[in-house]
Design goal:
The protein is an all-beta fold. The chain is built from no helices and 33 strands. It is globular and about 55 Å long. InterPro entries: WD40/YVTN_repeat-like_dom_sf, WD40_repeat_dom_sf.
Protein backbone atom coordinates (compact mmCIF):
# COMPACT_ATOMS: atom_id res chain seq x y z
CA UNK A 1 0.00 0.00 0.00
CA UNK A 2 1.18 3.52 -0.77
CA UNK A 3 1.81 5.97 2.04
CA UNK A 4 3.04 9.57 2.34
CA UNK A 5 6.64 10.19 3.40
CA UNK A 6 6.07 13.93 3.58
CA UNK A 7 3.60 16.65 2.67
CA UNK A 8 4.93 20.19 2.61
CA UNK A 9 3.32 23.55 2.04
CA UNK A 10 5.33 26.56 0.91
CA UNK A 11 4.38 30.03 -0.27
CA UNK A 12 5.62 31.71 -3.43
CA UNK A 13 7.58 34.82 -2.33
CA UNK A 14 5.72 38.03 -3.06
CA UNK A 15 8.95 39.53 -4.33
CA UNK A 16 9.02 36.88 -7.06
CA UNK A 17 5.34 36.74 -8.03
CA UNK A 18 2.67 38.82 -6.36
CA UNK A 19 -0.48 38.15 -8.36
CA UNK A 20 -0.54 34.98 -10.49
CA UNK A 21 -2.60 35.03 -13.65
CA UNK A 22 -5.82 32.97 -13.56
CA UNK A 23 -5.72 29.43 -14.91
CA UNK A 24 -7.95 27.24 -17.03
CA UNK A 25 -9.92 24.26 -15.71
CA UNK A 26 -7.09 22.01 -16.90
CA UNK A 27 -4.24 22.74 -14.50
CA UNK A 28 -1.11 22.39 -16.60
CA UNK A 29 1.05 25.30 -15.42
CA UNK A 30 3.33 23.42 -13.02
CA UNK A 31 6.18 20.95 -13.52
CA UNK A 32 8.49 19.16 -11.07
CA UNK A 33 12.04 17.83 -10.98
CA UNK A 34 13.67 16.15 -7.97
CA UNK A 35 17.43 16.70 -7.57
CA UNK A 36 19.79 13.74 -7.98
CA UNK A 37 20.49 13.53 -4.24
CA UNK A 38 16.73 13.62 -3.45
CA UNK A 39 17.31 16.43 -0.99
CA UNK A 40 15.12 19.02 -2.73
CA UNK A 41 12.71 19.51 -5.59
CA UNK A 42 12.57 22.23 -8.24
CA UNK A 43 9.04 23.46 -8.86
CA UNK A 44 8.44 25.31 -12.14
CA UNK A 45 5.33 27.49 -12.40
CA UNK A 46 4.03 29.67 -15.22
CA UNK A 47 2.18 32.94 -14.78
CA UNK A 48 1.44 35.43 -17.50
CA UNK A 49 4.23 35.22 -20.09
CA UNK A 50 6.99 34.07 -17.72
CA UNK A 51 8.16 30.91 -15.94
CA UNK A 52 9.46 30.88 -12.38
CA UNK A 53 11.21 28.20 -10.34
CA UNK A 54 11.36 27.47 -6.64
CA UNK A 55 13.45 25.00 -4.65
CA UNK A 56 11.68 23.18 -1.81
CA UNK A 57 13.26 20.74 0.63
CA UNK A 58 12.39 17.03 0.32
CA UNK A 59 13.43 16.05 3.84
CA UNK A 60 11.23 13.37 5.42
CA UNK A 61 8.94 14.64 8.14
CA UNK A 62 6.18 13.44 10.45
CA UNK A 63 2.94 13.21 8.48
CA UNK A 64 -0.14 14.26 10.42
CA UNK A 65 -3.62 13.09 9.51
CA UNK A 66 -7.01 14.68 10.08
CA UNK A 67 -10.52 13.38 9.56
CA UNK A 68 -10.96 10.56 7.03
CA UNK A 69 -7.14 10.17 6.85
CA UNK A 70 -6.75 13.60 5.22
CA UNK A 71 -3.06 14.54 5.20
CA UNK A 72 -2.16 17.78 6.98
CA UNK A 73 0.78 19.63 5.36
CA UNK A 74 3.83 20.85 7.22
CA UNK A 75 4.70 24.51 6.63
CA UNK A 76 8.15 25.09 5.14
CA UNK A 77 10.15 27.86 3.50
CA UNK A 78 11.23 28.18 -0.11
CA UNK A 79 14.98 27.57 -0.28
CA UNK A 80 15.62 29.39 -3.58
CA UNK A 81 13.47 31.16 -6.13
CA UNK A 82 14.14 32.95 -9.40
CA UNK A 83 12.88 33.80 -12.86
CA UNK A 84 13.77 31.10 -15.40
CA UNK A 85 16.01 32.13 -18.27
CA UNK A 86 13.35 31.14 -20.81
CA UNK A 87 12.24 33.30 -23.73
CA UNK A 88 9.03 35.12 -22.76
CA UNK A 89 5.81 34.49 -24.68
CA UNK A 90 3.66 37.21 -26.22
CA UNK A 91 0.48 35.87 -24.61
CA UNK A 92 -0.39 33.96 -21.44
CA UNK A 93 1.29 30.58 -20.99
CA UNK A 94 -1.30 27.80 -20.85
CA UNK A 95 0.84 24.70 -20.23
CA UNK A 96 4.40 23.72 -19.38
CA UNK A 97 6.15 20.32 -19.39
CA UNK A 98 9.54 18.88 -18.40
CA UNK A 99 11.46 16.05 -20.06
CA UNK A 100 14.90 14.53 -19.61
CA UNK A 101 17.40 13.86 -22.38
CA UNK A 102 18.79 10.41 -23.10
CA UNK A 103 21.89 11.04 -20.97
CA UNK A 104 19.80 12.62 -18.17
CA UNK A 105 22.37 15.40 -17.80
CA UNK A 106 19.91 18.18 -18.57
CA UNK A 107 16.22 19.01 -18.56
CA UNK A 108 13.99 20.04 -21.42
CA UNK A 109 11.48 22.73 -20.51
CA UNK A 110 8.64 23.32 -22.94
CA UNK A 111 5.87 25.91 -22.79
CA UNK A 112 2.97 26.84 -25.03
CA UNK A 113 0.84 29.98 -24.94
CA UNK A 114 -2.80 30.60 -25.78
CA UNK A 115 -2.05 30.96 -29.51
CA UNK A 116 -0.06 27.72 -29.79
CA UNK A 117 3.42 29.26 -29.82
CA UNK A 118 5.90 26.63 -28.57
CA UNK A 119 9.19 27.51 -26.85
CA UNK A 120 11.64 24.82 -25.68
CA UNK A 121 14.82 25.37 -23.62
CA UNK A 122 17.53 23.10 -22.25
CA UNK A 123 18.28 23.52 -18.55
CA UNK A 124 20.98 22.04 -16.35
CA UNK A 125 19.92 18.95 -14.41
CA UNK A 126 20.74 20.68 -11.13
CA UNK A 127 18.18 23.39 -11.83
CA UNK A 128 20.62 26.01 -13.09
CA UNK A 129 19.85 27.91 -16.28
CA UNK A 130 22.29 27.06 -19.05
CA UNK A 131 22.07 28.53 -22.54
CA UNK A 132 22.59 25.20 -24.26
CA UNK A 133 19.67 25.21 -26.64
CA UNK A 134 16.52 27.24 -27.17
CA UNK A 135 14.14 26.98 -30.09
CA UNK A 136 10.59 28.01 -30.85
CA UNK A 137 7.89 26.95 -33.29
CA UNK A 138 4.78 28.70 -34.51
CA UNK A 139 1.59 26.85 -35.51
CA UNK A 140 0.78 26.53 -39.19
CA UNK A 141 -1.63 29.48 -39.05
CA UNK A 142 1.07 31.58 -37.33
CA UNK A 143 -1.13 31.98 -34.26
CA UNK A 144 -3.77 34.21 -35.83
CA UNK A 145 -7.36 34.22 -34.64
CA UNK A 146 -8.70 33.77 -31.14
CA UNK A 147 -6.57 32.31 -28.37
CA UNK A 148 -7.62 29.68 -25.86
CA UNK A 149 -6.40 26.71 -23.87
CA UNK A 150 -3.35 24.91 -25.23
CA UNK A 151 -1.54 21.82 -23.99
CA UNK A 152 1.89 20.26 -24.51
CA UNK A 153 3.40 16.84 -23.99
CA UNK A 154 6.80 15.34 -24.81
CA UNK A 155 7.44 11.87 -26.18
CA UNK A 156 8.74 9.64 -23.33
CA UNK A 157 11.39 8.12 -25.61
CA UNK A 158 12.33 11.15 -27.77
CA UNK A 159 12.58 14.47 -25.98
CA UNK A 160 12.83 16.30 -29.30
CA UNK A 161 9.30 15.24 -30.26
CA UNK A 162 6.46 17.30 -28.80
CA UNK A 163 2.73 17.54 -29.42
CA UNK A 164 0.81 20.79 -28.94
CA UNK A 165 -2.99 20.83 -28.65
CA UNK A 166 -5.05 23.95 -29.33
CA UNK A 167 -8.59 23.78 -28.04
CA UNK A 168 -10.24 26.60 -29.99
CA UNK A 169 -8.69 25.49 -33.31
CA UNK A 170 -9.52 21.79 -32.73
CA UNK A 171 -6.01 20.85 -33.82
CA UNK A 172 -2.86 19.12 -32.58
CA UNK A 173 0.55 19.95 -34.06
CA UNK A 174 3.44 17.49 -33.79
CA UNK A 175 7.00 18.84 -33.85
CA UNK A 176 10.52 17.41 -34.08
CA UNK A 177 12.31 20.26 -32.30
CA UNK A 178 11.23 23.28 -34.37
CA UNK A 179 10.27 21.24 -37.47
CA UNK A 180 6.54 20.81 -37.98
CA UNK A 181 5.77 17.15 -38.78
CA UNK A 182 2.00 16.99 -39.06
CA UNK A 183 -1.32 18.43 -37.93
CA UNK A 184 -4.15 16.35 -36.45
CA UNK A 185 -7.72 17.64 -36.74
CA UNK A 186 -10.05 16.63 -33.90
CA UNK A 187 -13.84 16.51 -33.99
CA UNK A 188 -14.30 18.32 -30.68
CA UNK A 189 -12.28 20.74 -28.59
CA UNK A 190 -9.22 18.87 -27.21
CA UNK A 191 -8.72 19.18 -23.45
CA UNK A 192 -5.78 16.87 -22.70
CA UNK A 193 -3.19 14.76 -24.51
CA UNK A 194 -0.35 12.33 -23.83
CA UNK A 195 1.96 9.99 -25.69
CA UNK A 196 1.03 6.42 -24.81
CA UNK A 197 3.56 4.23 -23.00
CA UNK A 198 1.70 0.98 -23.48
CA UNK A 199 3.23 -2.38 -24.36
CA UNK A 200 1.44 -2.47 -27.70
CA UNK A 201 3.22 0.69 -28.89
CA UNK A 202 6.69 -0.32 -27.69
CA UNK A 203 9.28 2.45 -27.45
CA UNK A 204 8.52 4.29 -30.67
CA UNK A 205 5.90 6.53 -28.99
CA UNK A 206 3.85 6.80 -32.14
CA UNK A 207 0.47 6.63 -30.41
CA UNK A 208 -1.12 9.77 -29.07
CA UNK A 209 -4.13 9.75 -26.75
CA UNK A 210 -6.41 12.82 -26.83
CA UNK A 211 -9.53 13.72 -24.88
CA UNK A 212 -11.94 15.75 -26.99
CA UNK A 213 -15.41 16.51 -25.70
CA UNK A 214 -16.91 13.27 -24.38
CA UNK A 215 -14.56 11.11 -26.48
CA UNK A 216 -11.14 9.53 -26.10
CA UNK A 217 -9.40 9.35 -29.46
CA UNK A 218 -6.23 7.39 -30.28
CA UNK A 219 -3.98 8.62 -33.09
CA UNK A 220 -1.15 6.74 -34.79
CA UNK A 221 1.36 9.26 -36.14
CA UNK A 222 2.61 6.71 -38.68
CA UNK A 223 -0.76 6.38 -40.39
CA UNK A 224 -2.39 8.66 -42.97
CA UNK A 225 -5.72 6.88 -43.36
CA UNK A 226 -8.63 8.55 -41.53
CA UNK A 227 -6.26 11.33 -40.50
CA UNK A 228 -4.33 8.90 -38.33
CA UNK A 229 -7.23 8.18 -35.97
CA UNK A 230 -7.23 4.47 -35.14
CA UNK A 231 -9.83 4.31 -32.38
CA UNK A 232 -12.51 6.36 -30.62
CA UNK A 233 -14.18 5.64 -27.30
CA UNK A 234 -17.32 7.59 -26.41
CA UNK A 235 -18.22 8.37 -22.82
CA UNK A 236 -21.53 9.60 -21.49
CA UNK A 237 -23.07 12.20 -23.76
CA UNK A 238 -22.50 15.68 -22.32
CA UNK A 239 -19.90 14.57 -19.74
CA UNK A 240 -16.67 16.13 -20.99
CA UNK A 241 -13.35 14.37 -20.49
CA UNK A 242 -10.77 16.75 -19.01
CA UNK A 243 -7.70 14.54 -18.56
CA UNK A 244 -5.96 11.43 -19.84
CA UNK A 245 -2.86 9.56 -18.64
CA UNK A 246 -1.04 6.39 -19.59
CA UNK A 247 1.00 3.67 -17.87
CA UNK A 248 2.97 0.80 -19.38
CA UNK A 249 -0.16 -1.36 -19.50
CA UNK A 250 -3.26 0.83 -19.25
CA UNK A 251 -4.78 4.21 -20.03
CA UNK A 252 -7.09 6.28 -17.81
CA UNK A 253 -9.52 9.13 -18.43
CA UNK A 254 -11.57 11.35 -16.13
CA UNK A 255 -13.78 14.38 -16.39
CA UNK A 256 -17.16 15.90 -15.61
CA UNK A 257 -18.75 12.60 -14.57
CA UNK A 258 -16.35 12.40 -11.59
CA UNK A 259 -15.39 8.87 -12.63
CA UNK A 260 -11.98 7.38 -13.45
CA UNK A 261 -12.21 4.83 -16.26
CA UNK A 262 -9.31 2.47 -16.94
CA UNK A 263 -8.98 0.98 -20.44
CA UNK A 264 -6.98 -1.96 -21.75
CA UNK A 265 -5.31 -0.72 -24.99
CA UNK A 266 -5.01 -4.26 -26.36
CA UNK A 267 -8.79 -4.65 -26.61
CA UNK A 268 -9.97 -1.08 -25.87
CA UNK A 269 -12.36 -2.38 -23.27
CA UNK A 270 -12.97 -0.87 -19.85
CA UNK A 271 -11.10 -2.75 -17.11
CA UNK A 272 -12.49 -0.73 -14.23
CA UNK A 273 -14.66 2.27 -13.42
CA UNK A 274 -14.06 4.12 -10.15
CA UNK A 275 -17.43 5.86 -9.98
CA UNK A 276 -17.77 9.24 -8.23
CA UNK A 277 -14.33 9.00 -6.64
CA UNK A 278 -14.10 12.80 -6.60
CA UNK A 279 -16.66 15.23 -5.23
CA UNK A 280 -16.40 17.48 -8.28
CA UNK A 281 -15.02 17.28 -11.82
CA UNK A 282 -11.73 15.44 -12.34
CA UNK A 283 -9.14 17.63 -14.06
CA UNK A 284 -5.91 15.73 -13.42
CA UNK A 285 -4.82 12.06 -13.47
CA UNK A 286 -1.52 10.22 -13.10
CA UNK A 287 -0.64 6.57 -12.63
CA UNK A 288 1.71 5.76 -9.77
CA UNK A 289 5.29 5.05 -10.86
CA UNK A 290 5.69 2.66 -7.92
CA UNK A 291 2.58 0.56 -8.55
CA UNK A 292 0.39 1.16 -11.60
CA UNK A 293 -2.59 -0.33 -9.74
CA UNK A 294 -2.76 3.04 -7.99
CA UNK A 295 -3.81 6.30 -9.60
CA UNK A 296 -3.64 9.93 -8.44
CA UNK A 297 -6.78 12.00 -8.98
CA UNK A 298 -7.02 15.79 -8.89
CA UNK A 299 -10.43 17.39 -8.53
CA UNK A 300 -11.76 20.91 -8.93
CA UNK A 301 -12.69 20.98 -5.23
CA UNK A 302 -9.01 21.39 -4.19
CA UNK A 303 -8.69 17.69 -3.30
CA UNK A 304 -5.98 15.32 -4.50
CA UNK A 305 -6.45 11.65 -3.72
CA UNK A 306 -4.65 8.38 -4.36
CA UNK A 307 -6.51 5.11 -4.68
CA UNK A 308 -6.41 1.55 -5.93
CA UNK A 309 -8.49 1.68 -9.07
CA UNK A 310 -9.21 -2.06 -9.24
CA UNK A 311 -10.94 -2.00 -5.85
CA UNK A 312 -12.15 1.64 -6.06
CA UNK A 313 -10.47 2.25 -2.71
CA UNK A 314 -8.98 5.55 -1.55
CA UNK A 315 -5.76 5.23 0.46
CA UNK A 316 -4.70 8.85 1.05
CA UNK A 317 -5.64 12.42 0.14
CA UNK A 318 -4.80 16.05 0.78
CA UNK A 319 -6.37 19.41 -0.06
CA UNK A 320 -5.17 22.72 -1.41
CA UNK A 321 -6.37 25.97 0.13
CA UNK A 322 -7.84 27.49 -3.07
CA UNK A 323 -8.28 26.84 -6.79
CA UNK A 324 -5.50 24.90 -8.50
CA UNK A 325 -3.44 26.86 -11.02
CA UNK A 326 -1.15 23.93 -11.74
CA UNK A 327 -0.77 20.30 -10.79
CA UNK A 328 1.77 17.69 -11.85
CA UNK A 329 3.58 14.47 -10.95
CA UNK A 330 7.24 13.65 -11.56
CA UNK A 331 7.78 11.38 -14.53
CA UNK A 332 9.66 8.54 -12.82
CA UNK A 333 8.76 8.80 -9.15
CA UNK A 334 5.75 9.52 -6.96
CA UNK A 335 6.31 13.16 -6.11
CA UNK A 336 3.23 15.36 -6.58
CA UNK A 337 3.06 19.13 -6.70
CA UNK A 338 0.15 21.55 -6.74
CA UNK A 339 -0.01 25.34 -6.99
CA UNK A 340 -2.99 27.34 -5.71
CA UNK A 341 -4.06 30.84 -6.66
CA UNK A 342 -3.44 31.88 -3.04
CA UNK A 343 0.28 31.44 -3.74
CA UNK A 344 0.60 28.16 -1.81
CA UNK A 345 2.55 25.22 -3.24
CA UNK A 346 1.89 21.71 -1.94
CA UNK A 347 4.55 19.03 -2.39
CA UNK A 348 3.87 15.38 -1.51
CA UNK A 349 6.38 12.52 -1.54
CA UNK A 350 4.69 9.12 -1.74
CA UNK A 351 6.33 5.75 -1.14
CA UNK A 352 5.25 2.12 -0.82
CA UNK A 353 4.91 0.58 2.59
CA UNK A 354 6.90 -2.66 2.86
CA UNK A 355 5.99 -5.47 5.17
CA UNK A 356 8.26 -8.07 6.78
CA UNK A 357 7.23 -11.62 5.95
CA UNK A 358 6.93 -13.98 8.91
CA UNK A 359 8.20 -17.56 8.86
CA UNK A 360 4.78 -18.94 7.95
CA UNK A 361 4.68 -16.77 4.82
CA UNK A 362 2.06 -14.37 6.16
CA UNK A 363 2.62 -10.67 6.67
CA UNK A 364 2.95 -9.67 10.30
CA UNK A 365 1.95 -6.12 9.47
CA UNK A 366 5.20 -4.57 10.71
CA UNK A 367 6.76 -2.03 8.30
CA UNK A 368 10.31 -2.92 7.28
Amino acid sequence: MLEAKSLRKATVPRSLLQHPSPGNVQSNRLALHVNDDNSSCWVYIASGCRIYKLEISMQDSLVNRGKESLLIPEQCEVMNSSLVNHCPHRSEIQSIALAETERSDCLILGSVDSYGHLIVSKLDNSGKDVDRLTFSALPRDCGVGEGGWAGICFSPSQWCMAAVARSFCKSIDVYDQDIHLQTIRTLWYPSSLCFMQTLCSGNDSSLLAVTEGCQLSIWDLRMKENGGCVHRICGSLGDIFYTVCSSSTNIAVGGADRTVTIYDPRRWSALSRWVHCSKYEITGLAFSSIDSDYVYVQGVDYEVLCGQWRDSKKVLSFRGDSNWLGFSKCANRDVLGGWCDSGSIFLADITKENYIQSTDGLSNGVPS
